[in-house]
Amino acid sequence: MSSHIIALHRRSGCSVLAHASERLGVSPMLTQHPRHAEQLAAGLPADASLLVVTGGDGTLSEVVNGLMQRPPDQRPPVLLIPGGSGNDVARMIGIRRSIPDVERRLAEPRVATWDVIRAELTSPLQEATTRYCINVMSAGITAEVSQLFNRSMRRLPPDIGYTLAALLCFARYRAGRVDLDADTVQISRDMLLVAMANSRWFGSGIGIAPDASPDDGKMNLTVAAGVSPLQFVGMLPRLRRARHVSHPGIFYDSTTECRIGAERPIPVEIDGEFSGFTPLRVTVIPRAIQLVT
């Protein structure tokens, strides 16, 4: 049995990471390039018993994609030390980046088993690909917001950066016709966004799926159709409190599978990272990943 640490390179000087490293007696593996965390997680020894991850939702998502390449009995529990721009998974499970919090979880670990969303889509290179989502994925304007934030605004405080990216994208985005086919609903109309949620928050604290539960074997759908970008901006204060929005253009549902097509390919983000385009097929893999809470 062995413990391992994967850390986002820019967090290598974090005192909490140094404490975890000393406590476990292991040196962290630092990420060097995009998707390196995925490679490191996929290549862990078969007897790995704990994986400490320092970073944000994007780093955790890479780790999950690596672990999903391994047999279920070779996916060690993940102890997340939040250190990213969004930290929405940390918000969901109620953890902090502090030495006392990490020490508590190392001394008295409680494990929550989360579902994972499997996504089949077209990659940015126009190739068929499969990716996994631990938190929230979406198609439409929110994917453009994530792409702009990651490209140009990561140096800003997260709330300011995401809000500015949203305002810029909302000013120019034009909703297109989207076909959505889920367990109990079929919709074909102009849509601003479709969110497929395993957890409640995305985009640094936007509660897009108030009823989401990461261990119920379903994903929660939030659809914005017949809603203008300006109207959606006006909904953000309520969404940040993870409250339902009462509006005829906002639709909530839950499903185990969903297919999305569009007249023209629309962008898709997974756990805050631009990942490709529609057409998109998503399914739920129940109880696939363990998180130490």
Helix and strand arrangement:
Blueprint: E1 2-7, H1 15-24, E2 29-30, H2 36-42, E3 48-55, H3 57-67, E4 78-82, H4 88-93, H5 99-107, E5 111-122, E6 128-133, E7 136-140, H6 141-152, H7 158-172, E8 176-182, E9 186-197, E10 219-225, H8 229-239, E11 250-255, E12 257-262, E13 267-270, E14 273-292
Parallel strand pairs: 1-2, 1-3, 3-4
Antiparallel strand pairs: 5-6, 5-14, 7-9, 7-13, 8-9, 8-12, 9-10, 10-11, 12-14, 13-14
Helix pairs in contact: 2-3, 6-7
Task: Explain how this protein is built.
- The protein has 293 residues and is of the alpha+beta class.
- The protein has 2 domains: 2-109, Probable inorganic polyphosphate/atp-NAD kinase, domain 1 (Rossmann fold, 3-Layer(aba) Sandwich), CATH 3.40.50; 117-287, Tumour Suppressor Smad4 (Sandwich), CATH 2.60.200.
- It is built from 8 helices and 14 strands.
- It has helices at residues 15-24, 36-42, 57-67, 88-93, 99-107, 141-152, 158-172, 229-239; strands spanning 2-7, 29-30, 48-55, 78-82, 111-122, 128-133, 136-140, 176-182, 186-197, 219-225, 250-255, 257-262, 267-270, 273-292.
- The strands form 2 sheets. It has a 6-stranded antiparallel β-barrel with strand order 7-9-8-12-14-13. A 4-stranded parallel beta sheet has the order 2-1-3-4, with helices on both faces.
- The radius of gyration is 18 Å and the shape is globular.
- The chain starts with a strand and ends with a strand.
